[in-house]
Amino acid sequence: MTDWYYHDPAQGRVGPLSAEQLRARYADRRVQRDTLAWHPGAREWQPLERYAEDLQLHTVTPDASQPPPLPPAQPAAAPTASRYAHAHARGAPPPKQGLSGCAIAAIVAAVVAVPVLAILAAIAIPAYNDYTIRAKTTAGLVGAASAMQRAVGEFAGARGRCPGNDDFAPLVRQFATIEKQATVRFGALANGNCAFEFTLRGNSAIEGRTWLHEAHRNGGQLDWDCSGGDLPDRYRPPACRAR
C-alpha cells in the first residue's frame, strides 16, 4: 500500500494517508486538484492533478456543499505611518533610512563598469588608430603593388635583369601623381633578387618607414614576399606580416 502526503496551508505536511483516505478528503473538498501531494518514490511534490489516474479521482465527485480549504494566513500588517508618528512623539527614534537593494546594486555595477570601460578603451582605441593608418596607406597600395609585381616579372623575363627607376620612369611619375602617401623605388637586392620598395609618409606613426616587396624565383615564375622593410606588422595587410 502506498502512503500519501499532502500540503495543507494551515497544518503543513499531512499524512501518511492511504489512497482511499486521500480520495475521501478530495470528496469533502479538504484537498483539491491543485493541492501539492507526494508519495514515496516520487522525485518532488506535484499537484494532486498529476496523480489523478493513480488515485482514480475521476470516480470521486467533490461535495459542493463543503467549503474549500482555507487560503494561507496573511502576514501581519506593517505598522502604519500614524504609529510611527505616535512613537516619534513619545521620543522614540524614527526608523533608519538606508539604500535600497537596487541602489546598492547600481552603485556596485557602476564601480565595476568604470575599470572595464577603461580596459576596453585602452584596447579598442589603439586598434582603431592602427586600422585608420592602414586603411589610408598600405591598404591603398595593395592594388599598385600587384600591378608592379606583374611589370617587374615581365621586364625581368624579357630583359634578363631587374628593372630600375629609370626603366620604369613613366610608371614612377604616374605613381607620384596619383599616390601622395608613398614613393616607390625599383632595383635589385644584394642577393640578386628583383624588388621594389615603398617609403611611406603622411603620418607620424609611419613616416619614413619602408615596405619591401622581394621576388624569389620558383622555376619559371616569381614568388613575391611582401614582409620586408621596417614597417611594423600592425600597419601591413595580413598576407605581408612576418610569420
Series of secondary-structure elements, N-terminal to C-terminal: EEHEEHHHHHEEEE
Fill in the CATH topology of the domain at 135-240. Answer: Glycoprotein, Type 4 Pilin
Q: Point out poorly predicted stretches.
A: none
Outline the biggest β-sheet: 4 strands, antiparallel
Distance between the termini: 76 Å
Give the class from helix and strand content and strand pairing: alpha+beta
Strand content: 15-25%
Number of strands: 8
Q: With helices defined by DSSP (H or I, 4 residues minimum), what is the helix count? A: 6
**Fourth-level CATH superfamily of the domain at 135-240:** Glycoprotein, Type 4 Pilin
Give the fraction of residues assigned to helices: 25-40%
| C-alpha Rg (nearest Å) | 43 Å
Reading off the top of the CATH hierarchy, the class of the domain at 135-240 is best stated as Alpha Beta
CATH architecture of the domain at 135-240: 2-Layer Sandwich
Strand order of the largest sheet: 2-1-3-4
Let me know the average pLDDT. 81
